[in-house]
Amino acid sequence: MLTVGIVDDNPRDLEKLELIVNNMENVELILKANSADEVYHSIQKTPVDLLITDIEMPGMSGYQLADFIQLNNMKTAVIFVTAKSGYAVHAFELNVHDYILKPFNPDRLIQSIDRFTEKKDAGRVTGRLFIRSDGDLVVVPKAEIIFLERTGRTTTIHTINETYETYQSLGELEGDIRESMFIRSHRSFIINLQYVKRFASYSKKSFVVIFEGSSGKALVTKEKLKYLQENYF
Hints:
Elements: E1 2-7, H1 11-22, E2 27-33, H2 36-45, E3 50-53, H3 62-71, E4 77-82, H4 88-93, E5 98-101, H5 106-122, E6 128-133, E7 136-141, E8 145-151, E9 154-159, E10 163-166, H6 170-177, E11 182-186, E12 189-192, E13 196-201, E14 206-211, E15 217-221, H7 222-231
Parallel strand pairs: 1-2, 1-3, 3-4, 4-5
Antiparallel strand pairs: 6-7, 8-9, 8-12, 9-10, 11-12, 13-14, 14-15
């Protein structure tokens, strides 16, 4: 069951969100509020899987609320539903799941929630990766891999506990992983989307990927980030 919270200072818009969510199967609306300040206090006690929020509201804004969620590493995804288009770039830097402009067709939000549910279910990475490292055959649980990095003739596999080096190429390892949450983000990197914390501006053609559980950083091209926004976030 997917738990959802909604917040909008406009009563009609809040009612519309409530009707959409309540008519969906396997979705439970457990939080309804007309201010981000109320949600700020509520989710610290009772987190939700998905928060659907307006951006411009009296007091705390939806953007500030999403920033709080990210800074505290809360396992709550955010969908912005707003009449303002100017926040889109900053929103994706916060790694929000979606950005929907008002007025919107209910199917647009339903599809977004369904896509999040599919991503959440697909995120259960299982299996093991076998690599050759220093003459040994090392077994690495896929769920522990944060990202893979190609440098020169070697590939470094960063996990939540340690790193491994192998002469196997990213192409070889990519074929062995075969999990939907592993994405070839750049010619030199494969990233596990489960550990992505945020995307930070780096250059005109790429962004830096910041991870939970690792001080290491990867790169994602602008084109690949657009693909991720359309299909994963």
